[in-house]
Write a structure and sequence with these properties.
2 copies of one chain form a homodimer.
Chain A: H1 3-27, H2 35-44, H3 51-58, H4 62-74, E1 78-82, E2 90-94, H5 96-120, H6 122-135, H7 145-150
Antiparallel strand pairs in A: 1-2
Helix pairs in contact in A: 1-5, 2-3, 2-4, 3-4, 5-6
The first copy, chain A, binds a DNA duplex through helix 4 and helix 7.
Pfam families (chains A, B): MarR_2
InterPro entries (chains A, B): HTH_MarR-typ, MarR/SlyA-like, WH-like_DNA-bd_sf, WH_DNA-bd_sf
Protein name (chains A, B): MarR family transcriptional regulator
Chain lengths: ~150, ~150
Amino acid sequence: MSGAELAFRLFGAFRSLVDDLHDELARRGHPAVRPAHGFALQAIGARGATATELGVRLGVSKQAAGKTVDGLAALGYVERTADPTDARRKIVVVTPAGREVLRLSVEIFERLRAERERDVGVTRMREMEAALRGLDSAGAPRVDASAWLSS
Amino acid sequence: MSGAELAFRLFGAFRSLVDDLHDELARRGHPAVRPAHGFALQAIGARGATATELGVRLGVSKQAAGKTVDGLAALGYVERTADPTDARRKIVVVTPAGREVLRLSVEIFERLRAERERDVGVTRMREMEAALRGLDSAGAPRVDASAWLSS
DNA sequence: GTTGGTCGTCAACGTGGTTGTCCAATAACA
DNA sequence: TGTTATTGGACAACCACGTTGACGACCAAC
């Protein structure tokens, strides 16, 4: 396989997973969730986070993180709450609806992976995952894919 | 590996390849080339293409394809030429500079793949590529990554 | 109590998509 | 052949999502 084809197929495989995830999320009552939302929800986590923290975790500016929070809040998946110890900070917390999306995403991703594993074979899947771990030295999530495309 | 981690690592591996490619392209005299440009150049191909054809190949509107051509033309990588048989059509052709970028990209991608192969091992690499071929039923290129993110 | 750093937000901008509209040119057909 | 339908390219307005710069509010430290 050529290097270019390798890159292209890695992206294709990723995209197929994410597309299938969002198709299924839409079918299960969350049609407005987009890829960036899932990443952000995960980055906020159970303990909540401020917009600035979220920006660091996502690898984007605090302003961009703030806009993402706006979108998520408009959909009812997160809420901004006051920090009792610091009036400047606003803690973003995941709502029950947001937790439902996270729970569903995990479940659906597992199902999708199982489907792929059935298609390509258990051994081959294990080898691929091992290779991926080696390939991707994987630091921070960096979901600024849109900005990355135009960098 | 969880399904979510699989998706994430697929993207990470892809992104690492493309980032490294563009770092190297920049070092070799093409700092302004962005990922979308490479895809577009490849889609135009040796025989040239019209903006509308390019849009179909890239999975975007003809207007978006036209803008991409504008950018590529401003960088000197393509040129719009008249179609002698149809005065409406303008054939976009790759210039020598554009061909140089394509040639360099192929070469660099091969080197990057070889590096990865050295890291993960020949056998494991072969298994991963086989798995990727199975995973990604890969029809048309579909490089509308930016649009896809915001869909 | 002033001074400096941090948090969140607003504003302006860039990039790269989208749809809608329009004109010029070609193709199809009565 | 003349009229009508379709096609290719461009323009405009708009949207999504990132950026930087600036600013007010607040906290902390000397």
